[in-house]
Design brief:
alpha/beta, six-stranded antiparallel beta sheet, 8% strand, flat
């Protein structure tokens, strides 16, 4: 079964979505989380098995499927409403019950719709539902379910627990309670035991008497057989005696009487036929001689009649065209007057109006395009002559030099400001020398003095003396550093002042170059204002320069456009002259020398009317001459035929029709007469043949008389009557014999019955039956006496119990024991039934499960590129992976990736087993490859693609890696096969990947 169309009318985030999935191949459905993959999988399950309880509101959709037999169905699920249709028949059954032998949603999810968490090991093979659905199909798909139901019913009857509350447990407890209560009521156990023994003896006596009665009834039944067969036997013997009396006709032909009757009947029929034929033959010939001339002229009359319709139509056509001839002539004259204003006295008989229309259209188009050309004359938007710079103004190069000088002056101003700030900082901070080394030297001297005092005054360790020397060396180094820093400040100031003077000299040179008129001693503000003024002048010049450049460019562009415009005008002028020449050429060639372009349509319309009138008039003239010639021939032929037939009248169509009707009547009469004369001859021949047949049958009668030894017909009839009596007695005898065989039933009993019927009479058997009936009556009296005796014993037992409680307990115990026996019998029936079903199921599992494991091994071999296969232990409880060296690896030593590959192979093998035994189902795989590395994923996709050549497989994934690997495998298989299809799911939409 394949899904051929999905319609999600209103299903979660899907609304009015229609999708036709490929019927074969690996269909990779990629989408991120919350994109709708889970909803789409829920849709597929719901279409197959219906909605879960309480989970149907707001879900609408339908699905088209194609089964293995080629029939297509549509499954509808509209909230609680569900049905199926094949276009003609509507079904309200569930697909699983109708086609898949009761497959439920849970089993489908375990095998066909699996996710990563479902790859849970090969113990799925021990699942009872899977075993019954996939291994025991040959024994009936419901075998496992039936066995479970039987075991459940056994549990409903009995549980192995002293505290059980099931019916058999309760009844057993009641029996123990009855025994305890009965023992409590007994007071004389010896007498009570004797009475119980006597009661038991009455039961044995009763059984012996009943056995004797049964044996006696068998004797009666034996005697009933010959009694029932006696009347039939006597009737058969009487019939046999009659047959012996009629033995002289026993050899009479079995069909003699029937033959004699048939011959007599046939001879009578022949006599009757001869009488009727002779009566019909008494009439004379029916054909008349005057019909011969009509038969000779008939073919010519038929030919002439074929033209009667055409003859009438020709007369009507000539009469109808009389007025039309006048109209055509009037139309010619009127149109000729109109045409002469353009053509003169001679009107052309043929005109190339297509060429004229083309020439007129070309002339009109050229004139129109020339007008458009004149209207499209370009306008000059730029000044006629660009403005030249005024005399005395700086040139472009000078302005560019000024711009560069201004930029350099700006940089020098910034440099001068920086140098002045550094000089001001150095001068304001004195020498600008740091006193840090001096402070460090003072501290080191203090530390050295302290350590020296501790050594010399207090006698401390010599290490303190070394420390004092170290601090003293540090103090000397710090004083040397301070001295070197004291002479650096004046040198720095001198260097900055020189740099400042150089900058100011450069500024004065740049100012002179830019014509700024500034001195180095001026403030920065003066320099900035002057520079801004020069920049404004530079920007004005720049603007004017851009305008001048644009005007020049516009002038060049205008000149080019104007030249192009002139060229187009010259071209259209040439085309206009050519069109005018073509128009003049057409006018002179067509004869319409005075025709203007605007009058072309009017002239064509008038000429068409004139030409149609001329053509119609000429065509009718030719037609009329032909009609008159043929109608004259038909009239002459008709008058000639009328004279030969002796018919008065003129040669007209109406007279021809009347004569033709008369001819048809005569022809039919002549045919009938000829047929009658032919039948007359055939009747004479039939009479001769019938007389011969009568003679043959009379001879057969004589032969039959000679065969039976009869001399006369009366004697023959007497023998026929005796033979029929013999046959009736024979039939009675055979029926009686058959009845006796039915009564006897077996050949042995039949022989004994025949002997009894021959030896004895009916009285012997009736007397014996009366004896056995009396014996049965005596035995029944003894039974009554035994029952009476048992009643007295039971009454005594009841008295011994001081009340009727003992009897009631016995009776109640007996009643409950009967119920217990029924329940135990029912439980034992269930026990044997479940045992036999279990044995049958085990047989099918032993046969099927190794096939599934072997197939899974083949799948694993393909999936791992030949690295591994599978083996199962003898009892099927352990599974091993076998590598290339034939090393068996138990399940505990499998890697997670190898384990998932094996579990996937087992699931797919189970699915294929279901497909072979019942029907193929689409496989739905939900992100089962995420724990595979890239190599294993690629191998698995290769395997699924190969499996998809016949199956329909959906692989849902949110992994971009899996999707990319599927794309790579698709490219690898391109050209070889097309079994991988990529689709993207995004927010309730499904589209094919590009």
């Amino acid at each position: 079964m394949k899904i051929i169309q999905m319609n999600l009318d209103d299903f979660g985030i899907y609304h009015n979505v229609e999708w036709n999935p490929p019927e074969t191949g690996l269909i990779v459905m990629h989408g991120h989380n919350e994109s709708g993959k889970t909803t789409l999988m829920k849709y597929v399950r719901s279409m197959f098995f219906g909605y879960l309880r309480g989970d149907w509101k707001g879900f609408f959709g339908h699905m088209d499927i194609r089964r293995d037999d080629g029939r297509e169905y549509r499954i509808y699920r509209k909230e609680k409403e569900s049905y199926m249709t094949d276009g003609q028949l509507t079904l309200h059954d569930e697909p699983a019950d109708l086609w898949w032998h009761g497959l439920d949603r849970q089993t489908y999810d375990k095998i066909f719709a699996m996710g990563l968490e479902d790859l849970q090991g090969f113990k799925i093979l021990s699942n009872e539902t899977v075993r019954s659905q996939f291994f025991s199909v040959e024994g009936g798909v419901r075998m496992g379910a039936t066995r479970r139901d039987i075991i459940r019913q056994m549990g409903d009857l009995l549980v192995a627990s002293p505290q059980g509350k099931k019916p058999i447990n309760v009844l057993l407890a009641e029996q123990r309670e009855f025994d305890n209560r009965i023992r409590a009521l007994s007071y004389d156990e010896d007498e009570f035991a004797q009475l119980q023994g006597k009661e038991q003896a009455t039961h044995e006596t009763e059984n012996r008497i009943r056995l004797s009665i049964e044996e006696t009834k068998q004797q009666i039944e034996r005697i009933s057989m010959p009694i029932a067969a006696w009347d039939v036997y006597k009737r058969g013997q009487d019939a046999l005696k009659r047959m012996q009396d009629l033995a002289d006709v026993s050899q009479f032909p079995a069909d003699g009487a029937q033959k004699w009757t048939e011959l007599e009947t046939k001879i009578g029929e022949i006599d009757e036929q001869i009488r009727k034929l002779e009566a019909l033959s008494a009439k004379g010939p029916a054909f008349r001689e005057e019909w011969n001339i009509w038969l000779l002229c008939g073919p010519h009359l038929d030919d002439l009649y074929l033209h009667v319709g055409e003859w009438k139509q020709g007369l009507e056509e000539v009469a109808a065209h009389a007025d039309m001839e006048i109209d055509w002539q009037f139309e010619q004259n009127q149109c000729a007057e109109s045409l002469k204003q353009w053509t003169g006295d001679t009107i052309p008989s043929s005109v190339d109006w297509t060429g004229g229309q083309a020439a007129a259209a070309g002339l009109a188009r050229c004139e129109q395009e020339l007008e458009k050309w004149q209207a499209a004359k370009p306008k000059n938007v730029a000044a006629d002559k660009p403005e030249e710079p005024a005399e005395g103004e700086p040139s472009k190069e000078e302005w560019q030099a000024v711009g560069k000088a201004v930029s350099s002056i700006q940089e020098c101003l910034m440099e001068r400001k920086k140098l002045r700030e550094q000089l001001q900082w150095l001068k304001s901070d004195g020498s600008g020398v740091s006193h840090g080394p001096a402070v460090l030297a003072a501290l080191c001297l203090a530390a050295a003095a302290g350590l020296a005092v501790m050594v010399f005054v207090y006698g401390m360790d010599q290490l303190f003396g070394y420390g004092a020397g170290l601090f003293l060396a540090l103090a000397v180094a710090a004083f040397a550093k301070q001295k070197s820093l004291a002479g650096r400040g004046p040198r720095r100031i001198e260097e900055l002042e020189k740099s400042l003077a150089a900058v100011q000299e450069r500024m004065e040179a740049l100012a002179a170059e830019a014509n700024a008129g500034l001195a180095a001693s001026d403030d920065d503000d003066v320099w900035s204002r002057k520079l801004d003024e020069i920049r404004m002048q530079y920007m004005d010049w720049k603007t004017q320069e851009s305008k001048t450049v644009w005007e020049k460019e516009q002038k060049v562009m205008y000149d080019a456009i104007y030249d192009e415009w002139n060229k187009k005008g010259a071209a259209w002028q040439g085309k206009l002259e050519a069109s005018r020449k073509a128009w003049e050429s057409w006018r002179s060639g067509s004869g319409f020398a005075s025709l203007e372009v605007g009058q072309l349509a009017q002239a064509k319309e008038v000429w068409d009317k004139w030409h149609a009138a001329v053509s119609a008039s000429e065509s009718w003239r030719v037609r009329k001459e032909d009609l008159l010639r043929r109608m004259g021939q038909w009239r002459d032929s008709a008058e000639q035929l009328f004279r030969e037939l002796g018919v008065a009248g003129e040669g007209t169509p109406e007279q021809t029709e009347a004569v033709y009707k008369q001819w048809q009547t005569i022809r039919v009469q002549a045919e009938v007469a000829r047929e009658q004369d032919k039948q007359q001859q055939e009747r004479q021949a039939q009479i001769v043949q019938l007389q011969k047949d009568k003679e043959i049958r009379q001879n057969q009668q004589q032969d039959l008389l000679a065969l039976t030894g009869a001399q006369t017909t009366g004697e023959f009839r007497s023998k026929v009557l005796k033979f029929r009596q013999f046959q009736q007695y024979k039939e009675v005898y055979e029926q009686s014999e058959a009845h006796i065989r039915l009564i006897a039933k077996t050949p042995k009993q039949l022989a004994e019955l025949r002997h009894e019927l021959k030896v004895h009479t009916l009285k012997n058997w009736t007397d014996e039956r009366a004896y056995y009936e009396k014996k049965i009556a005596d035995a029944e009296k003894k039974l009554a006496e035994v029952a009476e005796k048992r009643g007295s014993i039971i009454e005594r037992l009841s008295q011994m119990a001081r009340s009727d409680a003992y009897g009631q307990l016995l009776q109640e115990k007996q009643n409950r024991k009967a119920e217990l026996d029924g329940k135990v019998n029912e439980w034992l029936t269930y026990l044997f039934a479940q045992y036999m079903l279990g044995e049958a199921q085990s047989y099918y599992e032993r046969v099927r499960q190794p096939l599934v494991i072997r197939q899974a091994g083949d799948y694993l071999h393909l999936m791992t590129q030949g690295r591994y296969t599978l083996q199962a232990s003898f009892d099927g409880r352990q599974l091993y992976a076998v590598d290339g060296t034939q090393r068996r690896i138990p399940e505990k030593q499998w890697s997670s990736g190898l384990g998932d590959q094996i579990y996937l192979a087992i699931r797919i093998s189970l699915a294929m087993a279901f497909s072979k035994q019942i029907e193929a189902m689409p496989l739905i795989l939900d992100d089962i490859l995420v724990r595979f590395d890239e190599q294993r994923q690629k191998e698995a996709i290769h395997f699924l693609a190969d499996l998809g050549k016949k199956e329909q497989i959906f692989l849902f994934t949110c992994s971009q890696t899996t999707r990319n690997l599927a794309g790579e495998v698709q490219k690898e298989l391109a050209g070889e096969t097309d079994t991988i299809h990529l689709f993207e799911i995004e927010q309730g939409t499904i589209r094919q990947s590009v």
